[in-house]
């Protein structure tokens, strides 16, 4: 098969108005091969949208899964972030966290769902993120279970606040979570300090398993970098998109 089919893409740039954030938020929307408005599609919402598209190569992965593995096509929405306020939007203790989750649930979703034929059941509305993007994605599912139950976390920053939030739940059997962690992530430098992501993810795994979360947990050699996450992303996507009709 000609490789060029994997790299063809229709990506629409949108500016989503937001009263919660006080200004428009750029998003990019990938429409899969053969896209038709009369059909409906599962949707993957990505935090750090620009990185998921450029460094995660999520669009190329989606095309390969469609053409090579017969996976049902999905629409992908990459939500861009201003790196200067990323931590305050994505970290549960961040000052813009409440505004960002309000934007995501009350402004972004209705905007996308009014313009694109995305499915709206929680199992077909997947949220994905890396590091703190994984954190905010998990918190969105915990705080809005009627909206989200499918989460992809690439080396999620699951520290004290997140572990306490999980501990508040008695039953997480409704939550379907993919967790990836790299064994070389013992001392990850972030703007909030240096953290052991391996220990944090292992502790979080135990909390989730105790609450019967439907968990797929992957631990393998890898650093806290897109070079690691990019290669594992297709398996995560397949996990959630396989068998959706």
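^ structure tokens above, recovered residues below v
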């Amino acid at each position: 098969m000609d490789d060029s089919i994997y790299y063809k893409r229709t990506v629409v740039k949108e500016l989503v108005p937001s009263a919660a954030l006080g200004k428009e938020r750029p998003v990019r929307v990938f429409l899969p091969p053969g896209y038709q408005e009369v059909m409906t599609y599962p949707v993957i919402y990505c935090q750090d949208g620009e990185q998921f598209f450029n460094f995660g190569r999520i669009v190329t992965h989606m095309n390969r899964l469609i053409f090579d593995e017969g996976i049902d096509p999905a629409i992908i929405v990459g939500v861009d972030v201003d790196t200067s306020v990323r931590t305050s939007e994505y970290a549960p203790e961040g000052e813009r966290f409440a505004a960002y989750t309000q934007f995501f649930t009350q402004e972004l979703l209705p905007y996308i769902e009014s313009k694109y034929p995305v499915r709206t059941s929680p199992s077909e509305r997947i949220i994905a993120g890396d590091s703190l993007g994984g954190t905010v994605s998990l918190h969105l599912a915990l705080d809005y279970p009627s909206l989200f139950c499918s989460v992809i976390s690439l080396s999620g920053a699951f520290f004290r606040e997140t572990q306490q939030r999980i501990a508040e739940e008695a039953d997480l059997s409704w939550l379907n979570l993919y967790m990836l962690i790299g064994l070389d992530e013992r001392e990850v430098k972030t703007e909030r300090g240096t953290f052991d992501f391996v220990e944090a993810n292992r502790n979080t795994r135990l909390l989730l398993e105790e609450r019967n979360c439907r968990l797929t947990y992957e631990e393998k050699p890898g650093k806290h970098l897109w070079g690691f996450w990019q290669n594992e992303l297709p398996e995560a996507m397949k996990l959630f998109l396989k068998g959706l009709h």
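The mean pLDDT is 94.
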